[in-house]
Sequence to fold (152 residues):
Amino acid sequence: MTIRILFFSFLSAFILSACGSSSSTTSKGKKNFSVDYYAGNYNLKELVQKETTAGKTPILFFTASWCKPCMEFKKTLKDQEVADAFSNAKLIIVDADIDKNKDKLTYLYAIGAIPTFIKLDANAEPVNTMVGGDWTEPTPSQIALSMRKFIR
Fold:
């Protein structure tokens, strides 16, 4: 009986962590400020409404596997300064490679270049767009500064 309880406890914890819950914490105890849109079974409008209700500004980040600036940006997501810049936001990562065969958000939001960041309102309508990045160097401090300005 004890083995069953332990197994189901482990299974439940694994399933909850694999779902990409927005309230999960990292191994260092920091709140998770990003979600991989295609890693979960998300509905964009529901996800955006959930995040805005929680007081977060939803930011779509369109990326691709071949995009070097995207890779540089993703590396900085582990940095505390960048995490702090997203303290009042939720970064929704949309992989354009997968998107072309799924929800086609790249078409819906008329994405013409990668990376593109789109700040959304509660109805998933664009409020602001940044193509590329306005940082001079892809350092965590430059990216954090840029993201703080964009999220405001």
